[in-house]
Amino acid sequence: ISERHRHRYEFNNKMLDTLENAGMKVTARNLEHQFVDAVEVPEHPWFIGVLFQPEFKSTVEKPHPLFMSFVKAAYNNKHSI
User: Fold this and answer.
1) Nearby residues of 52 by Cβ (< 8 Å), 6 or more positions away
2) Do 67 and 54 contact (CB within 8 A), yes or no?
3) Would the pLDDT of 15 be above 90?
4) Which of 45, 44, 64, 76 is nearest to 2 (CA)?
5) Which of 35, 36, 42, 75 could cross-link 11 (Cys pair, CB 3.0–4.6 Å)?
């Protein structure tokens, strides 16, 4: 990941097994420091949590892919509730 990492907050690795057993998957990890950088819940229409700041690489003309995927999922699932 070539994003600016949010150093103030970290994923609690003690909770990893519990969260994975509930369906959450770690999808990005800093192998050097064992930081979790991103998690997803594959069974959810759009559940992504990141510890980097995608807004720093986003502009009106070129939004970050996370923002685009969120808007697309919201549009595609607007009547599913």
Assistant:
1) 1, 3, 4, 5, 6, 37, 38
2) yes
3) yes
4) 64
5) 36
| SS3 of residue 5 by DSSP | strand
C-alpha to C-alpha distance for 56 and 73, rounded to whole angstroms: 22
Q: How far apart are CA 79 and CA 62, in angstroms?
A: 28
Q: From CA 71, how far away is CA 45, in angstroms rounded?
A: 12
The DSSP secondary structure of 6-73, one letter per residue, reads -TT----GGGHHHHHHTT-EEEEEETTTTEEEEEE-TTSSS-EEESB-GGGG--SSS--HHHHHHHHH
Cβ neighbors of 23 (< 8 A, separation 6 or more) are: 41, 42, 43
pLDDT digits (tens, 9 = 90+) for 36-63: 889 999 999 899 999 888 888 888 999 9
